[in-house]
Task: inverse folding
């Protein structure tokens, strides 16, 4: 970044410090803090070392303590189960099913959240409705709604998708409406001067201005959705043929395939980390690059 | 522009913040006119209503009483013909670069399209001396550079009148002095009509050709002075005009406000 070329010769008195400061604001997606960069190993490697140490300790514990294989599996056995599961396609199919349900639930929840937020921002009643509903339903663990969903939608995918949508809609609506509400009034006045109204005002001004809150809302609602779908699959079992990761874990326990149980958990953790990394990347490329406050 | 060269004509304006327009008046009975190409200043302490008056000219507020005409047409709402430069740094769109901010304004108001908008934007960015910051985001700019971007954006719209609401108020003293000089240069180059709001007597004298002093709420005009001869503190007439303006301010606001006047 060539900020060091500033300032112009006509403006000797321009403060250069903020421009230079910005050079140090560019964090990498893994969240490495600039002061530590260049001193020792990169973040990615350091964290891998932590994982490696955990694996070694885990392996040592299992082998030296003679732990029953019905309770705890060594990393080596988990690795085998993981590889076999991937080769057979069982894990891939289960993962695909879980992700599919999650995405559908998030899509529906996001649409509902957008509508609720738009209403909340445009009039008092909408604001009251959103505030009341979210305060009642947000603290409710969505998994608790599963029995009800099964009554309403039967033993189908729709029950699961409904439960995901309920987990997703409230944190997202709260964040998005907060994002819209906290758009600086000066920007809205500038937009009015430029003649912006209606849809263009929303797409060109409100959405980008609310982006930190929108991303924050998506991260939170994704986290809730992910945890809910796994839990729901554990409870629910199979809907119409294909089962997800939660079902895979439960089935493996039933057949006493404990390494598969661990393998399923590892897959869940890895997917979780991967998606969070994607969110961080998104934040880095947009909100951080623009120097906007993170919500 | 009217036949007698007035861009803006206000007569007996009364403005209130209350939505039902029956609440307490912030401005009461304000009349003035601004000639084309003039640098006109509203001067008054903080909170006296001068920003309210500027916002009324900008079209954000409707007067409760009186008339406000831009080129003989009543003002109906905000628009690019009265581009505004605000005091706050967050008037720039943070997700667009300097070039993006200026070219977007041109495109969305329909003044230019595509590469033509970019070219015109670059011209104005060059004009305010920000060529090296063209592709930077607002958060990478210093305060003075942010304000210059806002000025470039407003000027590129070629407004009938450029409204400036204490634009240098958030800058340090040195940058502020520098910006005052640059605004003078910009005015000479573009000939744009400027309506400038400030609480600084010094800034009013240096920047304005005519300075209108606003009194306490509900504000009326306390007096208007012609300061067009005086271009800086070194000018022999500066002291006298300064004293006159200060007296007008004190007259309009009483002792309680004297501390706010510099």
Result:
């Amino acid at each position: 970044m060539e900020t060091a070329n500033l300032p112009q010769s006509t403006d000797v008195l321009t403060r250069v410090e903020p421009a230079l400061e910005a050079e140090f604001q560019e964090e990498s997606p893994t969240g490495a803090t600039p002061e530590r960069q260049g001193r020792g190993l990169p973040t990615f490697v350091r964290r891998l070392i932590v994982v490696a140490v955990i694996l070694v300790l885990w392996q040592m514990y299992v082998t030296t303590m003679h732990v029953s294989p019905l309770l705890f599996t060594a990393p080596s056995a988990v690795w085998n189960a993981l590889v076999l599961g991937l080769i057979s396609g069982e894990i891939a199919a289960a993962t695909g099913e879980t992700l599919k349900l999650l995405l559908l639930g998030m899509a529906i929840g996001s649409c509902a959240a957008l509508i609720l937020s738009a209403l909340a921002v445009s009039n008092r009643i909408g604001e009251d409705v959103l505030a009341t509903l979210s305060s009642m339903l947000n603290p409710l663990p969505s998994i608790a709604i599963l029995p009800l969903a099964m009554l309403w939608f039967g033993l189908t995918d729709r029950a699961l998708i409904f439960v995901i949508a309920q987990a997703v809609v409230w944190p997202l609506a709260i964040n998005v409406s907060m994002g819209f509400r906290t758009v600086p009034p000066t920007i809205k006045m500038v937009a009015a001067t430029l003649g912006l109204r209606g849809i263009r005002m929303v797409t060109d001004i409100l959405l980008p201005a609310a982006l930190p809150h929108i991303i924050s809302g998506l991260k939170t609602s994704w986290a809730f959705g992910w945890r809910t779908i796994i839990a729901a699959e554990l409870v629910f079992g199979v809907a119409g043929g294909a089962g997800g990761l939660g079902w895979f874990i439960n089935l493996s326990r039933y057949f006493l395939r404990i390494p598969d149980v661990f393998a399923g958990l590892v897959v869940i953790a890895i997917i979780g980390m991967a998606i969070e990394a994607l969110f961080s990347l998104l934040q880095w490329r947009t909100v951080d690059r623009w120097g906007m406050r993170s919500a | 522009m009217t036949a007698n060269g007035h861009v803006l004509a206000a007569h007996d304006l009364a403005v209130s913040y209350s939505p039902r327009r029956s609440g307490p008046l912030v401005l009461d009975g304000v009349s003035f006119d601004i000639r084309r190409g003039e640098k006109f200043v509203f001067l008054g302490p903080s909170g006296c209503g001068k920003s309210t008056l500027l916002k009324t000219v900008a079209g954000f507020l409707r007067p409760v009483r009186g008339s406000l005409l831009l080129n003989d047409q009543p003002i109906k709402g905000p628009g690019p013909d009265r581009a505004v430069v605000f005091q706050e740094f967050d008037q720039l769109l943070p997700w667009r670069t300097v070039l993006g901010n200026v070219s977007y304004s041109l495109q969305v108001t329909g003044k230019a399209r595509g590469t033509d908008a970019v070219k015109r934007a670059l011209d104005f960015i060059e004009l305010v001396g920000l060529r090296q910051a063209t592709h930077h985001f607002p958060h990478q700019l210093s305060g003075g550079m942010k304000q210059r971007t806002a000025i470039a954006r407003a000027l590129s719209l070629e407004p009938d009148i450029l409204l400036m609401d204490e634009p240098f108020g958030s800058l340090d003293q040195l940058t502020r002095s520098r910006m005052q000089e640059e605004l003078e240069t910009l005015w000479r180059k573009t000939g744009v009509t400027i309506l400038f709001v400030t609480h600084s007597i010094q800034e009013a004298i240096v920047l304005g050709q005519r300075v209108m002093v606003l009194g306490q709420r509900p504000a009326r005009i306390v007096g208007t002075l012609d300061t067009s001869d005086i271009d800086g503190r070194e000018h022999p007439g500066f002291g006298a005009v300064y004293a006159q303006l200060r007296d007008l301010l004190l007259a309009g606001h009483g002792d309680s406000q004297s501390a706010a006047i510099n």
